[in-house]
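Subject: design request, 393 residues
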């Protein structure tokens, strides 16, 4: 049986992964489940899947979990603290690691999985945004596998030739067309964006996601991070990655070829499809997703994004072009700004202003050492907090 650790088990990707795995009890075994603080959901998952290990980063939540564990017959050992995320990602009994922790917190456990030679199902795009070169070097050096879970990158992976690592131009690829739903504010003017609330930003029209990713979708920073991720995953540059607004979220991305062909991957907007694809690759298995009814969809619309209204997308392109620790700074500033917005301490349109100010204020260094990346992440967060404090006074 294939042993699996799910980092971020209580989030939407983790829940979807467990749904797919539950269909194949004789082929996959859940070895470890982790969460930040959702002790109740994690315990319920442990009752159902009976893993060897459960990790809770938050100590208060772990104390609560420990009481329930004591009164149960579970074979599960409870581990506490972020360092144990790295431990379970590298366990000898783990073959595959679902890296689904949101944000920079996912970086170190994903690196741990790479160093241990695991198949990494990558839903944590920040790992590549922050340290693309380091992560990919570790994957290659340790014979690990890196398979994309974001629906767009998984779609691109399915549409590319198998030898794309030679370089896209050498394999006849001219362009990657990265689709985006446009989020809930696709039609709003700049004036209308001034007063949007966290509740409005989190009401995504198509996907059911966590609050942070929902806000990133609304600002289009999520798509900006995905542009950076695509450059690392597919060994290309920003000029070869074009964002295309597609509100139906049925075409998950496309690849354009030199002969005029455009290959697209279509499907219902359900994360179980890319999860099942990566779990079974290069085979195919039933994900539980209902087949796409093309007649019900009836139409497919495509638009060019407005960089002026969605400045975060343009900032992401600029950060990748600048290179070094610029994407790390971009990501850290965004995480701080989004958190402030969700706590009603910053307006929606100010998110981009905070990020741009951070990119101007924090020194950009080479990103070939982990210490440099973690230092840039820390400095960018400190600077972002200072900028937000100044804006509010």
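Subject: RE: design request

Done. Sequence follows.
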């Amino acid at each position: 049986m294939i042993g699996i650790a799910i980092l971020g088990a209580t989030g939407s990707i983790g829940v979807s992964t467990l749904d797919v795995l539950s269909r194949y009890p004789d082929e996959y075994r859940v070895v470890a489940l982790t969460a930040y603080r959702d002790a109740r959901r994690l315990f319920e998952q442990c009752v159902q899947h009976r893993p060897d290990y459960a990790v809770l980063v938050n100590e208060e939540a772990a104390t609560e979990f420990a009481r329930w564990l004591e009164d149960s017959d579970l074979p599960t050992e409870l581990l506490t603290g972020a360092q144990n995320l790295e431990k379970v990602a590298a366990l000898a009994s783990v073959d595959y690691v679902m890296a689904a922790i949101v944000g920079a917190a996912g970086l170190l456990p994903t690196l741990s999985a790479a160093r241990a030679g695991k198949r990494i199902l990558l839903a944590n795009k920040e790992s590549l945004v922050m340290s693309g070169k380091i992560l990919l070097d570790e994957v290659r050096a340790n014979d690990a596998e890196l398979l994309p879970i974001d629906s767009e990158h998984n779609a691109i992976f399915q549409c590319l030739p198998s030898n794309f690592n030679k370089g896209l131009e050498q394999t006849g690829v001219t362009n990657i067309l990265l689709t985006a739903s446009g989020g809930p504010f696709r039609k709003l003017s700049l004036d209308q964006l001034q007063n949007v609330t966290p509740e409005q930003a989190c009401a995504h029209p198509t996907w059911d996601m966590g609050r942070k990713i929902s806000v990133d979708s609304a600002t289009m920073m999520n798509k900006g991070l995905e542009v950076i991720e695509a450059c690392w995953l597919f060994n290309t540059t920003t000029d070869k990655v074009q964002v295309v607004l597609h509100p139906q979220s049925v075409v998950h991305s496309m690849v354009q070829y030199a002969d005029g062909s455009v290959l697209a991957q279509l499907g219902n907007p359900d994360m179980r499809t890319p999860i099942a694809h990566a779990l079974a690759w290069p085979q195919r298995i039933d994900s539980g997703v209902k087949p796409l009814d093309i007649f019900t969809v009836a139409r497919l619309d495509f638009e060019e994004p407005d960089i002026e209204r969605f400045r975060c997308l343009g900032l992401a392109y600029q950060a990748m072009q600048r290179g070094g620790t610029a994407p790390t700074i971009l990501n850290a500033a965004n995480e701080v700004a989004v958190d402030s917005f969700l706590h009603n301490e910053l307006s929606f349109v100010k998110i981009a202003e905070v990020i741009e100010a951070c990119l101007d204020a924090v020194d950009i260094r080479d990103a070939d050492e982990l210490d440099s990346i973690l230092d840039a992440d820390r400095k960018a967060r400190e600077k972002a907090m200072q900028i937000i404090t100044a804006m509010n006074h």
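The chain has a mean pLDDT of 95.
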